[in-house]
Design brief:
InterPro entries: ATPase_P-typ_cation-transptr_C, ATPase_P-typ_cation-transptr_N, ATPase_P-typ_cyto_dom_N, ATPase_P-typ_P_site, ATPase_P-typ_TM_dom_sf, ATPase_P-typ_transduc_dom_A_sf, ATPase_P-type_domA, HAD-like_sf
CATH superfamily of the largest domain: Calcium-transporting ATPase, transmembrane domain
CATH architecture of the largest domain: Up-down Bundle
Shape: elongated
Number of domains: 4
Helix content: 40-55%
Number of strands: 25
CATH class of the largest domain: Mainly Alpha
Number of helices: 31
Largest sheet: 8 strands, mixed
CATH topology of the largest domain: Calcium-transporting ATPase, transmembrane domain
Strand content: 15-25%
Bound molecules: adenosine-5'-triphosphate
Distance between the termini: 71 Å
Catalytic activity: Ca(2+)(in) + ATP + H2O = Ca(2+)(out) + ADP + phosphate + H(+)
Main location: membrane
Radius of gyration: 35 Å
Subcellular location: Cell membrane
Keywords: ATP-binding, Calcium, Calcium transport, Cell membrane, Ion transport, Membrane, Metal-binding, Nucleotide-binding, Translocase, Transmembrane, Transmembrane helix, Transport
Length: 889
């Protein structure tokens, strides 16, 4: 019987897979990738374009129209029938194109967020897209990583993996390096890791034995990621609204049908069947034209255009609703290190127990024992490296430490060779410590570095001038004072300690009774763009709160510098936060702008407290333990350099880790919401105009102002293109000067509703006047005039819909070329109706000549001009009121 992967010796497995401890060569890996294919699970099939196309014919309205067209055909009205077919076909095509475009941009987003993995290739560690992993690769795992493939562990230090998704086990599985003798279920294969599970603690290295669909998860079909669409609150709101509206419009159409049938019955008719058919078709056309069926895809397109724009500004949206929520964000809780600061650390000072600080000799021969030990700990309890080509790999804090050693002419590599690492307790931000085990001068020594307060707590002795002495209260006081002095200079401080141990493998319990050696202090300058970003956030009514693992004094010093901590504000440590009751926290919340030495659990509490106050809060994070807080926040923001787990829990990922990118994303989010509003208002105003004109004509006994075909045509011409073009409008100049949007207010808040109604009425007035003018000659000319005026005024309305506060000239006529293009296309499509041959189909009589077109155009233009002038007047009246004093909430 063949042995399973977990039963073989690793040397045997390596041979089987034709690989070495240095990993595959690049060429071999490429070759295997060609043969085996990508390391990814087969995705759920997408709907084909044909399927989407056919799906559009499921719509009840479309079916009715098709039936009507077929009856028309049988009755000999071939041209009319053909045109209906053509219009329906075009409508369906446009929907398919829109749906595919929306899908395409969502796919692009997914790709941007695809995970990477660290592999060894020819002995060099490198980061590659996880889907390019092949069997035989050696993968390095760290806390927070998703395991990218199945494999056998080669190294594991305190490695714990959450395998719940495969085994249902809620506590993480502890991994070991061993060979199992018996067959074991997945949960008991402690020497293996499986694709899709999460490293929650420690580090490890494994040999890939299965990728893609051959992995355990690949074989569990129903665990395959299904591509369920996520709807945003706005989309859901609009869905509901559309449903209600459609119902109202259907009733209206029935009423229109009823009135028309009554007329046919009362007035008598030459061709009853044809008239009934026409009445029927008109009623359906009214419904089709008035129901905003393009709305959903337009909203999706505008949202995904927004996500594209955000991606350009280094913010990758992982959950579509976030685009909208960003616009309502009023609190941003942000990490300090790397987000507000550059994360480019440089050691600038040190402190030893004998009081020495400042100058640090660049001649290692002159170092005393204390200095020597300080440097040893700083490079041994350290994972950073400098590769052959000079690139520095690892945590910036640790890079700073090896840089310091190198600058003082002590090769960190030499020390690491001299005292190889025998075991380790990796850093985690809850413990704020890291320790490693070495043999130094024939003694087993554990070296530890970490947050000074934590190291002080765990130290009982001090190394002073080469002697180990008691860590007296006086000495402790001296160290604490120095720590404060560094912190006030906004420096980040680490403490270094060691201990002789009597073991070959470390446990967390060993990190006690340490011998404190000294401190190193680093600068980490604020990012240049952060000053402006914090100011922008402030004027946009958004409060920035710093949440950091760093020391309180350091945090406050930096927060003051960049404008987050203002006079009267408070700073709290995690411990102080724990002592506050919910009520006390709620009271103080608005004033606390810095939280220091926090644990990830503290972060959840802070977000919750803000949410209790009804504030939409964004929260940044990068570690495994940050995931719950990122989920809890209205917008979880993960760092591009953060763990897979954090990214997965987040709604947005910052590819440059930069706070300024969050503020940019907020601006884009606000703009997207504005633009969706503009597009929706444009659509509804046009539809309303048409409906008012129809109801008016019907009420005073005129003939229908439009034929059914005309209505369908207008629906095709005016619905999609201008609305999408409006979705691309640039941000209004005041966008970051107003308060965040109330998340509960829908799209039709007072102002939008009023402007939709106003613009609808103006369009209707223009159409009614046109029909009246035409009617003076003949009802046919009245219809042609009404149709032309409606199509032109709806098209020109695009100009008025571009801004709520500025005229199109003020916005810049050419600032959104898509609007001009959309208007040109609409105009072009309209002129088709005037072509000989098509004129009859569109019921345009020969009496409709240049003068009539001129008239219709003037009426349409007047309506739009009135819209623009009203805007100017309203802005003038409201100006003094809109200068709201921005206060901190
Ligand atoms: P922020 O939360 O703003 O990103 P941070 O980097 O200080 O700030 P953590 O990474 O959680 O937050 O680190 C918490 C603390 O742990 C640090 O302030 C420092 O004292 C200590 N620390 C950070 N990195 C290491 C490390 N590599 N080894 C040992 N201790 C560390």
């Amino acid at each position: 019987m063949t042995k399973h992967v977990y039963q073989k010796e690793t040397t045997q497995l390596m041979q089987d897979l034709n690989t070495t401890t240095a990993g595959l060569t690049q060429a071999e890996a490429q070759q295997r990738l060609q043969e085996m294919g990508l390391n990814q699970l087969a995705e759920a099939k997408k709907k084909s374009a044909l399927f989407l196309f056919l799906e559009t014919f499921k719509d009840a309205m479309v079916i009715v129209l098709l039936i009507v067209a077929i009856v028309q055909m049988i009755m000999g009205a071939h041209v009319e029938a053909l045109v209906i077919f053509a219009v329906l076909l075009l409508n369906s095509l446009v929907s398919v194109i829109q749906a595919k475009k929306a899908e395409g941009s969502l796919d692009a987003l997914k790709k941007l967020a695809a995970p990477d993995a660290s592999v060894l290739r020819s002995g060099q560690e490198q980061s590659i897209p996880a889907k390019e992993i092949v069997t035989g690769d050696i993968v390095i795992l760290e806390a927070g990583d998703y395991v990218p493939a199945d494999g056998r562990l080669l190294e594991a230090s305190t490695l714990k993996v959450d395998e719940g998704m495969l085994t249902g086990e809620s506590t993480p599985a502890e991994k070991e390096i061993t060979t199992l003798s018996k067959e074991a279920p997945i949960g008991d294969r402690i020497n293996m890791v499986f694709s899709g599970t999460i490293v929650t603690y420690g580090r490890g290295k494994f040999l890939v034995t299965a990728t893609g669909n051959t992995t355990e998860i690949g074989q569990v079909a129903d665990l395959l990621e299904s591509t369920t669409e996520q709807k945003t609150p706005l989309q859901r709101g609009l869905d509901l609204f559309s449903k209600k509206l459609s119902f109202a419009i259907l009733i209206l159409s029935l009423v229109i049908l009823g009135v028309q049938l009554l007329r046919i019955f009362l007035d008598g008719s030459v061709d009853v069947t044809q008239d009934i058919l026409n009445a029927f078709m008109f009623a359906v056309a009214v419904a089709v034209a008035a129901i905003p069926e393009a709305l959903q895809s337009i909203v999706t397109i505008v949202l995904s255009l927004g996500t594209k724009k955000m991606a350009k500004h280094h913010a990758i949206i992982r959950k579509l609703p976030a685009v909208e929520t960003l616009g309502s964000t009023s609190i941003i809780c942000t990490d300090k290190t790397g987000t507000l600061t550059q994360n480019k650390m440089t050691v600038v000072d040190h402190y030893l127990a004998n009081g020495q600080s400042g100058e640090f000799s660049t001649d290692p021969k002159k170092w005393q024992t204390d200095e020597q030990r300080l440097i040893e700990i700083s490079v041994l309890a350290n994972d950073a490296t400098i590769s052959k080509d000079g690139t520095k790999l690892g945590d910036p804090t640790e890079i700073a430490l090896i840089d310091f050693s190198e600058n003082k002419n002590q090769s960190y590599q030499k020390l690491r060779k001299q005292y190889p690492r025998e075991d380790e307790l990796p850093f985690d931000s809850d413990r704020k410590l890291m320790s490693t085990l070495h043999t130094i001068d024939q003694q087993k020594i554990m070296v530890t570095k970490g947050g000074p307060d934590i190291v002080f707590e765990r130290s009982t002795k001090v190394l002073r001038n080469g002697q180990i002495v008691e860590f007296t209260a006086e000495l402790k006081n001296q160290f604490q004072k120095q720590n404060e002095v560094f912190a006030e200079r906004a420096l980040r401080v680490l403490a270094f300690a060691y201990k002789e141990v009597a073991t070959d493998s470390l446990t967390l319990a060993e990190e006690e009774d340490l011998v404190l050696v000294g401190l190193l202090a680093m600068i980490d300058p604020p990012r240049a763009e952060v000053f402006q970003a914090v100011a922008d956030a402030n004027s946009a009514g958004i409060q920035t709160v710093m949440i950091t693992g760093d020391h309180k004094t350091t945090a406050v010093a930096i927060a003051k510098e960049i404008g987050i901590f203002q006079p009267g504000d408070q700073a709290l440590t995690g411990v102080e936060l724990d002592q506050l009751s919910e009520v006390e926290l709620a009271e103080k919340l608005a004033k606390i702008t810095v939280y220091a030495r926090v644990s990830p659990e503290n972060k959840i509490r802070i977000v919750r407290a803000w949410q209790e106050k009804g504030k939409i809060s964004a929260m940044t994070g990068d570690g495994v333990n940050d995931a719950p807080a990122l989920k809890q926040a209205d917008i979880g923001i993960a760092m591009g350099t953060g763990t897979d787990v954090a990214k997965d829990a987040a709604a947005m990922v910052l590819t440059d880790d930069n706070f300024a990118s969050i503020i940019k994303a907020v601006e884009v989010g606000r703009n997207v919401f504005d633009n969706i509003k503009k597009a929706v208002a444009y659509l509804f105003a046009g539809n309303l105009g048409a409906i008012i004109a129809i109801v008016f004509a019907l009420a005073i006994g005129w003939s229908n102002p439009f034929t059914a075909l005309q209505l369908l045509f207008i629906n095709l011409v005016n619905d999609s293109l201008p609305a999408i073009a409006l979705g691309m409008e640039k941000a209004e100049p005041t966008i970051m000067k107003r308060q965040p949007r109330d998340p509960n207010s829908g799209i039709f808040t007072g102002k939008t509703l009023i402007s939709v109604t106003y613009r609808g009425i103006l369009i209707a007035l223009a159409v009614i006047t046109a029909q009246w003018l035409g009617n003076q000659q003949s009802p046919e000319l009245g219809v042609a005039m009404a149709f032309t005026t409606l199509i032109l005024s709806r098209t020109l309305q695009t100009f008025a819909a571009r801004s709520n506060t500025q005229t199109s000239l003020q916005v810049g006529l050419f600032s959104n070329k898509m609007v001009l293009l959309a208007i040109l296309v609409c105009g072009g499509l309209f002129s088709l109706t005037l072509l000989p041959g098509l004129r009859e189909v569109f019921a345009i009589p020969s009496t409709f000549a240049l003068k009539e077109i001129g008239l219709a155009l003037s009426l349409a233009t007047s309506a739009v001009l009135l819209m623009e002038i009203t805007k100017l007047i309203l802005v003038k009246i409201q100006e003094p009121k809109s200068e709201i004093q921005l206060t901190r909430n």
